[in-house]
Design brief:
CATH architecture: 2-Layer Sandwich
Largest sheet: 5 strands, mixed
Strand order of the largest sheet: 1-2-3-4-5
Length: about 110
């Protein structure tokens, strides 16, 4: 897994790519929580994720909870088919705000 963080439309956009598994999810978790801890509205771009397991999903859930606790926006962008299948299996596709692109996410206040 690799990642990049960019600022776009008032969000910290965390772009993940590759496999988000037990070995790499701590890195994903750390970067997501750092963005939120820094007070940034955060979107996680999953368009380049080839595989995500329960530990990767847990990192996303933790980010969502921390963002809510801090009154920050959090959502998932461009979710790949592979990642969407995992989210649907866990019924989390109804929990996370999902956006086709950063541009389609609501403006931050």
């Amino acid at each position: 897994m690799s990642y990049e963080v960019r600022l776009e439309k008032g969000y910290a956009v965390v772009g993940l790519s590759g496999e988000v598994d037990l070995y790499k999810s701590p890195d994903a978790r750390a970067v997501i929580l750092k963005c939120i801890g820094d007070g940034q509205h955060t979107l996680v771009d999953l368009s380049q994720v080839d595989y995500i397991d329960s530990s990767g999903v847990a990192s996303l859930v933790e980010g969502l909870q921390m963002a809510r606790d801090n009154s920050l926006s959090f959502g998932l962008v461009g979710v790949s088919n592979t990642a969407m299948n995992v989210l649907k299996l866990a019924r989390l596709d109804k929990v996370f705000p999902l956006y086709a692109s950063v541009e389609s996410a609501p403006a931050t206040s």
